[in-house]
Write a structure and sequence with these properties.
Largest sheet: 5 strands, mixed, barrel
Number of domains: 2
Strand content: 25-35%
Strand order of the largest sheet: 4-5-6-7-8
Helix content: 10-25%
Distance between the termini: 51 Å
Number of helices: 2
Order of helices and strands: HHEEEEEEEE
Number of strands: 8
Shape: elongated
Structural class: alpha+beta
Length: 161
């Protein structure tokens, strides 16, 4: 077999092995969209798709997603024990998108959403926020506030990862 064909075959096998060992970046984009409840490029969603030049190891465990940053303007995507990336979120022209939909001290409905389920509980807003803002909420009986995303007047959501 000529050397060029052997080298080409080895390169093709190497590329196939590398793609099998690499994380599915499209899957990361889908999980971020499900976590934020917004499509890429829309307010509250990822600013852009994950950079396709990245080569992340395939994750054997479920990815862990959580809000990140002081203003909760990124999503932390972590493969436990392996890697962690931060996906910046699109906020439109201003973080709150306009007027506050939830005021400090307001009673709110807290919706925990996951794949195929939704649980609703009441709580108290610890700060004001507009659509797409991540604010602190205190559920009844909780010792510490949690962070939730404002989706409509008096309604916040916590995407389940």
């Amino acid at each position: 077999m000529p050397a060029a064909i052997i080298a080409q075959s080895a390169a093709a096998q190497s590329a196939a092995a590398q793609s099998e060992a690499s994380a599915d970046l499209d899957q990361i984009d889908r999980e971020v969209a499900a976590f934020t409840g917004a499509a890429i490029g829309t307010s509250g969603g990822a600013r852009a798709p994950v950079d396709r030049r990245m080569r992340l190891a395939r994750c054997a465990a479920a990815l862990q997603l959580s809000p990140y940053g002081i203003r909760q303007d990124s999503v932390s995507v972590q493969c436990p024990g392996s890697w962690r990336i931060f996906v910046p979120l699109s906020r439109g022209t201003e973080p709150s998108g306009g007027a506050d939909l939830v005021g400090r001290g307001d009673r709110v409905s807290i919706v925990l959403q996951g794949r195929g389920f939704s649980v609703t509980q009441s709580g108290e807003a610890m700060e004001a926020g507009g659509e797409g803002d991540w604010i602190r909420i205190k559920p009844p009986g909780a010792s510490e506030p949690i962070r939730a995303k404002v989706v409509s007047p008096g309604r916040v959501t916590i995407p389940a990862g």
